[in-house]
Amino acid sequence: MRALVVADEVDERLWAGIGPGCDVGLVLAAGDLPFDYLEYLTDALGGVPCVFVPGNHDPDLSGFTRHGGLFLRAGFPQAWPGPAGGINADGRVVDVCGLRIAGLGGSVRYNDGPNQWTQAQQARRARRLVRQAARRRRRDGRGVDVLLTHAPPRGVGDREDPPHRGFDCLHPTVERMRPDWLLHGHIHPYGEHPREHRMGETRVRNVVGKHLIEFTAHEVRT
After folding, report:
1. What are the Calcineurin-like phosphoesterase domain coordinates in residue numbering (predicted)?
2. Which end of the chain is more exposed for a tag (fewer CB within 10 A), N or C?
């Protein structure tokens, strides 16, 4: 599976440089991109699925459910502000294109904006995600292939200023899930090429901008 992985920065070259012949079967988005940009990417690639998590500059997408083709919030119909056709993986484990993807959006709380969490709040969300992944694994024997986050783990490619500190809880999350990849955004490289990190056997990559990544789905994880 070849995926286009994007976050935080719109790459103007993609507006004219992609199409159905690009051999990309999936778009993964790690937050803080215009939703119409994500819609354009999926349409230009022939309608491939788009799995995303929200960043701290994205609108609040919590509380939405879908019933009978309508989006509901607090029991009332409401237009969903997310990308049309996009799969919001925040706090969820989803199976798409043969990959099992666990998502955890948002950044460390630094003001009153949406999609921001204290370390304790994100830790609770991460524990729920780990339990969800474990239930799925008990059911079919498959582990998580990709952990898609907006912010990085604390001390693994993050920064020291408060808005760009990583989450401590991602360390035990990776230890328990053992995904092949942790893909995150949020940390702008400003022209530099950030190095890839390792957490055990998990490859950790900052995907701000655009990346093309080949994934191998594991039918059985031990």
Report:
1. 36-190
2. C
